[in-house]
Design goal:
It contains four helices and six strands; from the N terminus they run H-E-E-E-E-H-E-E-H-H. It is α+β, with helices and mostly antiparallel strands. The chain folds into two domains: 102 residues, Ribosome-recycling factor (Topoisomerase I, Chain A, domain 4, Orthogonal Bundle); 68 residues, Gyrase A, domain 2, CATH 3.30.1360.40. The strands form two sheets. A four-stranded antiparallel sheet has the order 3-4-6-5, with helices on one face. Helix 1 packs antiparallel against helix 3. The longest helix has 38 residues. It is elongated and about 70 Å long.
Length: 185
């Protein structure tokens, strides 16, 4: 019973780390990355779709993104969606290809992005601590129902704490890497 709880807790914590990692991948650095466009939603075919379902994005040069629409009729919608996403990017239409030059970041913007990254990481840490609290409450409930011994309870609580520390460290490592990327000129 405790092993199942530990496995579930580990999976939930990994999902939190993955969510933080995915969120930080969309943060703009000095280099062009197709992940910048992950948050773009395009209104096409009567519904709102992620950009990757109506076009392919690539990064042929360090400061340029290109987006190629699957259907020529959606080019205008894609351009509007990129502008509306408030990424600070100005798409240029070139036939069926949309070219998006990625301007260099100024110092103030870099610091702002680092603050945003730290906020995202802190939300991830809080999520992991909440998962720890849920697991600890569950362990204490099992102990109260006399399904495990006091030693088993203490070992399980200790394991959950070690897991928590491990996953918070993973978030800290991801944050440090992203901060270095953002501040790199």
């Amino acid at each position: 019973m405790l092993e199942k709880l530990k496995t579930e807790t580990k999976q939930r914590m990994q999902k939190s780390v993955d969510a933080v990692s995915k969120e930080l991948a969309t943060v703009r650095t000095g280099k062009a990355s197709v992940h910048l466009l992950d948050t773009v939603k395009v209104k096409a075919y009567g519904s709102i779709l992620p950009l990757n379902q109506v076009a392919t994005a690539s990064s042929p040069e360090p400061r340029l993104l290109t987006v190629q629409a699957f259907d020529k009729s959606t080019v205008g919608d894609i351009v509007k969606a990129i502008q509306k996403a408030d990424l600070g990017l100005n798409p240029i239409v070139d036939g069926q290809i949309i070219r998006i030059p990625v301007p260099a970041l100024n110092e103030e913007r870099r610091k702002e992005l680092v603050r945003h990254c730290k906020h995202v990481a802190e939300e991830g840490r809080v999520a992991i601590r909440n998962i720890r609290r849920d697991a600890n409450d569950h362990i204490k409930k099992i102990k109260k129902d006399k399904q495990v011994s006091e030693d088993q309870e203490l070992d399980a609580l200790d394991d959950i704490q070690k897991m928590t520390d491990e996953y918070i460290q993973k978030i800290d490592d991801i944050l440090a890497k992203k901060e270095k990327e953002v501040l790199e000129v």
